[in-house]
Design a protein that fits this description.
MetI-like fold; mainly alpha; 2 domains; single chain
């Protein structure tokens, strides 16, 4: 809908707009009815639970209800600001998330371009299948593999011993200083292949005559990628960047719970696992909810900011 049409629509009386909506719905009731299960699901599991956020401003216990728990105002948020362990989890979350952003955001783009450039169809399908496979394995499975590989007698230590890189094996998963890299690289290993799907879908719709014209003009393959492929992927890259930035405070909980142990906890504890531990393990539901609410607010701010910045870079065209 054009801006002028949207403006005229807003000037209509509310009753007229409701009648127009009902007329449009009646014309497409078969298609419109298909979304009702999804709408009902969102109302039950996404909107109704919002009322539970009130316990962030209460002193809630398991013997209370949402209505009977006493109000404490911003007391839980004051505790958060002075909680050393919370700020440690923030540092770990941002450290791991920034590594995933700097490395993990670029690799799916590069991998997608490499797959797209492969001319042999059978080999291309094999590469896609192999790169997709880790996505379908749970972190329980992948975490168990990593713990086994990085153990003292594991494959990784044996390889380093054979190459003469180390003289004594050690359990890498117990080394807190290496955890950020383990979390980042293992997440890339799991999701990089799956992340290429959208990029490959966009590249498959690029008009091949662009490449033919570039070849006639003498453009190399790298020049074609830089001037044709990447510009046509600009919008989907911007969208993924916005979503990635908005999720900087939401590190993978499943990954953390599997890979974290008592030795690397100082560098492995992220906000999500801290909220889980405070809420489910220690039963401090009000405090955990306050942390989660604060993180959600910051994530929304990051989302809006990233959208504004990317729209400026895309000639004021928003992708959201």
């Amino acid at each position: 809908m054009a801006k002028s049409d949207a403006h005229l629509e807003q000037r209509k009386p509310m009753g007229q707009r409701i009648r127009d909506f009902m007329v449009d719905y009646g014309r497409q009731w078969e298609l419109q009815s298909m979304i009702l299960p999804g709408v009902i699901f969102m109302i039950i599991f996404c909107y109704i639970p919002i009322y539970g956020l009130t316990i962030a401003f209460k002193n809630y216990t398991v013997i209370d209800t949402l209505d009977t728990a006493p109000w404490v105002g911003l007391e839980n948020f004051k505790i958060i600001l002075s909680d050393k362990y919370f700020w440690d989890s923030v540092v770990n979350t941002l450290g791991i998330s920034f590594l995933k952003l700097l490395i993990g955001f670029v690799i799916p783009i590069v991998l997608a371009i490499m797959i797209f450039e492969v001319g042999h169809t059978r080999f291309k399908k094999i590469v896609q299948t192999v790169s997709y496979l880790p996505h379908f394995l749970s972190w329980i499975v992948l975490g168990g593999m990593l713990i086994t590989w990085f153990s003292t007698t594991g494959m990784f230590n044996q390889l380093l011993l054979d190459l003469g890189v180390i003289s004594q094996p050690h359990n890498i998963m117990l080394d807190a200083g290496k955890y950020w890299w383990i979390a980042t690289l293992s997440d890339i290993w799991k999701e990089a292949g799956w992340g290429t799907i959208l990029y490959l879908a966009i590249m498959s719709k690029i008009d091949p005559t662009y490449y033919e014209a570039a070849k006639i003009d003498g453009a190399s393959r790298l020049r074609q990628i830089w001037n044709i492929t990447i510009p046509n992927m600009k919008m989907i890259i911007s969208l993924n960047l916005i979503l990635t930035i908005s999720g900087l405070l939401g590190s993978n909980l499943d990954q953390t719970l599997v890979l974290m142990n008592s030795q690397n906890r100082a560098r492995a504890e992220v906000i999500n696992s801290y909220v889980y531990r405070m809420g489910m393990t220690q039963g401090d539901f009000s405090y955990a909810t306050a942390v989660g609410l604060g993180v959600s607010i910051v994530s929304v701010i990051l989302l809006v900011t990233a959208n504004k910045v990317t729209s400026k870079l895309n000639d004021n065209q928003s992708v959201l």
